[in-house]
Amino acid sequence: MAEAVAKIGRRVIAVVEDGGNHLDLSDCELSSFPTGLYLATSAVADKILTISLTNNQLKSLPGKFCTFFKETQVLNLDGNFLEKLPHEASLLCNLKIINLARNKLDTFPDQLTEMHSIENINLEGNQIKDIPIETLKCMPKLSSVNLKLNPMNKVALNLSDVKFEVLL
Fold first, then answer.
1. 121: which strand partners?
2. What is the pLDDT of residues 75-108, one digit of tens each?
3. Which of 58, 82, 105, 144 is close enough to 126 for a disulfide, judged by CB 3.0 to 4.6 Å?
4. CA 66 – CA 87 distance, rounded (Å)
């Protein structure tokens, strides 16, 4: 655990000192998002465009995360235990890419359909059985939705006139 805390500290210091735009907290054994990171990254939060929290043990993402890192364009949450996204996720109005692969989602996160900037959604390897295909068709910038390895009824999906790539 001490090594994970030290790893987080080093990575945050590097982002703050360099004024970087990528916060990588992958493989840090996080079971929740550390509240102290809001203060630690406050000077550069609006410059952080990419956040990676892959391969942690996150069961939820706090709503404050979405309002604090509101300029985020790429959010990688692959390999956690997320069952849902917070309501505030829809406030990530600059988000272009979200990776929620290998989590515990059993329903399609409706917040994603409220993000008009989103281009790529990865939901591979969850427990999603149904998707709001008609709502997704109305998303202006959506180019790809990955739904591989979900227990969906692929035969029942009406993918006619879909203008984006759907990976099943």
1. 98, 145
2. 999 999 999 999 999 999 999 999 999 999 999 9
3. 105
4. 9
Structural domain span for residue 153: 2-167
The CATH number of the domain where 39 resides is what? 3.80.10.10
| 80's tokens | 């956690």
Tokens of 115: 């993000």
Quickly list DSSP for 13-29: HHHHHHT-SEEE-TTS-
Q: How many domains does the chain have?
A: 1
Residue 137 in tokens: 């068709």
0.90 exceeded by the pTM? yes
**Which helix (H) or strand (E) segment is 65 a member of?**
helix 63-68
Rounded-to-integer distance, Cα 85 and Cα 88, Å = 8
Residues 150-164 have pLDDT tens digits of 999 888 888 889 999
Measure the CA–CA gap between 5 and 59, rounded to whole angstroms: 18
